[in-house]
Fold:
Amino acid sequence: MPAIPYITATEVEHRLDWRVVADALAAGHRGPRAKITDQFLSRGPDTLLSRAAWIDGVGVGVKSVTVMAGNAGRGLPSVHGALVVFDDATGAVRAVIDSALVTKWKTAADSILGARLLARPDSRRLLILGAGAVAASLIEAYRAEFPGIEVTLWNRSPERARALAAEYGAAVAEDLPAAVAAADIVSSATMSTCPILRGAWLRPGQHLDLIGAYKADMREADDEALLRARIFVDSFDTTLAHIGELKDPLARGVIERADVLGDLADLVTGRAGRTGPEDITLFKNGGGAHLDLLTGQVILAAAAG
Structure:
């Protein structure tokens, strides 16, 4: 039996392209709907997140990651994990892929696909909230999708924003309300448990890309932002009942299920989307396992040369 490959960024990342991954995510949503499930296990502040997807004709994927709160103090990454890709027909393991590689390319490609389908095509100013690894990949991905876009960074710790801005040739915002008002696209990738993005700061025509919240106690945008926006998600299955960004306002009756107007399957087929240049659109990037699987297939193709 041949050895099962373990694929890392060193082997394939130089062969990957942001728009190609986004194209693969779009194509995957024109076919059969994925069967998806999520499982969260916790031990105090630590979390094990396992996400599984089966797409008929594509394959099966299970990504499990640990998020360990104390690892920063140990000088270790807080997240460790892997995606296991199984053959659709035989169920055999095709490969194991480093989760950091999959998550990086899946997350930013998910966001630029949402922006491709919902943001105004003439968007020229991007504001990114956060200055971590996701923010860095968002700079690269949005520049690929919107050539010439001006990038501004904001972070609670300004020194981190300045360091990332210097590395990528971006600007730094000191005044968050003013920066939000000036942006065409606002992409938020923070670990906030309470809203930092206020609906009162928004203006017609903007697109909001919400990434950071992934648990029930996390939110990045306030109620007013949701009420002012046309709301979309990458997947109904992975966002509505699990992530505080929508679970919380739905539970309190701030919005109703009918206010979530579509997911990527609806957006790529034109069944839902922006209705005009004055719409404020909001896309919740929940990053489900089906997206990991589709990204994993692109990575496998790149590894095969």
